[in-house]
Amino acid sequence: MLHDSYQNYYEEISNWDFDAFDIRTETLTDWDLYEILGNLACEDSAILDLGTAGGEKLLANFPDCKEILGCDYSPGMIETANRNLASSGRKNITFKVMDNLNMDVPQDHFDIVVARHTPTDPVQIRRCLKDGGYLLIRGVDKYDCWNLKMIFGGGQGYEDPVPQSIIDYENVIKAGFRDIELVPIHEREYFKDRETFKSFLCKVPILDAVDDDLLDKYIADNTFGGRIRLLRNYYGITARK
Ligand SMILES: C[S@@+](CC[C@H](N)C(=O)[O-])C[C@H]1O[C@@H](n2cnc3c(N)ncnc32)[C@H](O)[C@@H]1O
Questions:
Q1: What residue's CA is closest to ligand 1, atom 1?
Q2: What CATH number labels 2-20+29-144+157-188+233-240?
Q3: For a disulfide at 183, which of 4, 31, 168, 234, Cβ 3.0-4.6 Å?
């Protein structure tokens, strides 16, 4: 049920482009998905991007190589991705509709699988990786925007008994990967005004609903240098088949 309602949500927005929000980001930790990807990939690499959305991050950050496949279960997102691809001038990239939890890709084929802010099944991912291939996950942790969620009394992962980072980490271990690392990622995001911040919160699934009074309370406590601060808490996982 949750899976279906999230799918409708992504189908309705059909892009995952945040440029319009003019967010200033300060990264406090040094685990960088695209830097790691750039160091691991070579021109012969085959890379799979799970939950690629409109391909925005893939097209901007994945290195040129022999084969890149971006997948998403939302047909609307894949339409956007194909439009973005056509105007990007990039080569060797294809997009297709696929559920990360019911993967339809060749076995022992990819050198690197990337999953950024999207659900994963490490058993299926391991199957499609070549021996020695890498899995790179970046996820949103339960404690992401925790002070905001506390004011609202709920939100993404608020009631989870175990944080998603630990669930993913344990699933990667159980799937039989090696050289596994789980790393916390801390960022500060700054928004220029209330209107932009509110539209951002209405687009992302951090809160279930945006109440104006609670939003004002948060803004009163979290404005620094004229900008509204949001404390982000992500995690990165690297692992090898
Ligand atoms: C938060 S967005 C992240 C997009 C992109 N990876 C990025 O980092 O900007 C999550 C994406 O995962 C997709 N998604 C969620 N669950 C999925 C599933 N089970 N199978 C495939 N895609 C999924 C959504 O449609 C959405 O495009």
A1: 117
A2: 3.40.50.150
A3: 31
